[in-house]
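Minutes, project check-in
Item: structure for the 350-residue chain
Input as provided by the requester:
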Amino acid sequence: MEVRLDPRLLTLSAALTAGGLPPAGQDEHPLVTDTRRRLADHAAHPGVRRLCEAFAQHQLLGLAMHTVQLGPPPDFDDSCPDGVPPFVEVWFAAVDRTALAEALRSVWRDLRIGALLEEQAPRWEEVVRELSSRLADAQIEPFQRLFWGRFPYEAVLVPLWNMNGAGLRGVGVATVRETYAVCPAQGDQPPGQVDLLVWAQHEASHPVLDDIQGQHAQVPGECAFVERDCPPAGGFARHYGDPTSRWVETLIRTSTCFYLEYLGRPEDAEAFAASQVEAGVTAIPVFREALRPWWEARRQGTAPGLELVLPQLPAWLRAALAGRREADPAPGGPPGGSQDAGDPPPDMHA
């Protein structure tokens, strides 16, 4: 996985740092404090103000999603000759990409962001070296192709360590050719290796699953019955307010469990799954059990990728729930599960 310094995103994060205040009582990465100090006189710059206002409305996800569609500085061309992923236009249509490009152009020019990044180059090079060493054997792209069945992207990690994440681990954005795991600084220390692997694989999964989901739009609704047995809880239920978004997140987080196993980290996979249940993703054990037979066959080369078998997922989930009930029947209730008489038997090779 490539670790890349993206001047478009670094311009955005520098402007947000210039226009924001340092959080009280928190150590910051030296690149954050250096950027804030050097740009202290530009907090009232019109471009900085526009970007901070847009950030308050659309958050980092919305702004970063459109920033990566732009050309490189100094022009930040917003004509998007390669096209824009359809999900960007559907889910992030409220962001004015033309106004965003104009604000970034003025910030790049007037705040001399190019010169600032050149002066900070030794520190940025150290960041890239450290993160690259932690992701040296990430194998994200081979895993994604194996699990999802295809992955027509290059996976990139972009450190935004000139911006304080204020608790935000990062966001995932994409163009028609690349996926970007965009990572603001969290305090003055880099994230741990497992955290980086988990987060990078998660963010690289959203665009490809969105494509696959478009081919099988009925599947999330057909899986909603799982929430009767495994009602979502905690912050997960509060943050993801509809069954489809919860299905997407649960499936991607399940893929992360298999990804960690793929890397030879079974203990990390179990710890990650347990942390997700604790966070309210209560269906993840059922998803893991449902997908396990297919995944083992897939690794042996006897089953296709998930894009071709996704319509089988509701039946696999019913079978997994049935197995759980047979193993631990409810007091006073009959043994067996909830598979409907009309459901086809699970077939991982369909």
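Outcome recorded: The chain has a mean pLDDT of 91.
No further action items on this chain.
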